[in-house]
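Supplementary Note 3. Input sequence used for the single-chain structure prediction.
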Amino acid sequence: MQIEQLEIFTEVVRLGSFAAVAEKRQLNATSISRSIQALETELGVKLLQRSTRKLDLTEAGETYYQQILPILDHLDQAKYKALDIKQELKGTLRVTLPLGFAEAQVVPLIPEFRRDHPELKLELLITDECLDLVQEKIDMGVRIGKVSEENWVARPLKTLRFVACASPLFLQKHPFPEPGALEQLPCLNFIAKAEAKQWRFHHRRSGKTETIWINQVLLATHEQAAKSLCLAGEGIALLPDWLVQEELQNKRLLEVFPEHDVLYLQAGNQIWCTYPNREYVPAKTRAFLDFLQERLGNKKAGKTPA
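The predicted structure, written as C-alpha cells, is reproduced below.
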C-alpha cells in the first residue's frame, strides 16, 4: 500500500469522480481507477460503489475513509514541519473566501503576497459555501459572521460595518425615512440568509435599539446583485461598507440612516480567519494569516502561534 493510493482515494471521495481527480493530477481516469482497484484488492473489501452517474462509499469505504483522514493529516503536518525548517514557503496554500469580500478586499492584495513568496502556489476557493477545511484539505478560510464549526481555530480579522443605502433617485421619491418605514418601503435582500428579513437599528446618541421586519421586494443570492439593484433605484439595501465604499464617496449611493448602526439580526459583524485546530500551524498558513492581519485587520492581534 502506497501513500499516494490513500491520497487518491480521499480525493475521489472528496471530488466525487475519477475524472475530477485525474484532471487535478494531470493523469488519465484509467490510472485513477486502477489505483482504487489496487487498494481494494489489497484490503480485500469494496470501498466505492460505482454507477454510471456517481460514486458512493460503501459501509467499509466510509469507515476506512474516516480512519485514514487523520493519518494523512499527521503525515502532512510532519511534512510541513520539515519544510518549515528550511524557512522557505513552498508547496500549495489552499484558502477559501466568501465571494464579495475576496473580490473587494483580498484578491487585490494577492500580487503583493506573491512577490514576497514566489515559490508558494496559491489556490483560492472563492465561494459563499461553508467548505469543510479538513475534508477539503484547506489550509485556512475567511468567514463572516458566526463560526460554528468544531475543531477550527477562529482568529478575529476585522469588524464588519454594514451600511443601509439607496440611490439618490430612490431617495427623491422616498425622502430619508425613519427605520420603521422599511416595513412598507421596498427593500433588497438575500435569499440564503434567514436572518436577513430582520434589520436591527441602534441609535448612537439615544442608545435606542429596534428591530424591523423589512418589506422584501427583491431577493438575490449575492450582495453584488443587491448592490446593482440598489444603484438602479430599486430599493434600500443593507450592504458591507467595503462593497459600497466607492459609491458612497462619489454619491452614487447615499447612507439612509447615518446616525444608526445597522445589522442583520443575529448575523454577527465579525470577520474571522479560521484554520484547522492542529498541534502545528504550517509556516505558509501563518504567513498568510499575518499578512491579512497586517493589511486588513487589527494591528494589536499579534502573530499567529506556531
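The longest strand covers residues 152-159. The two ends are 32 Å apart (CA to CA).
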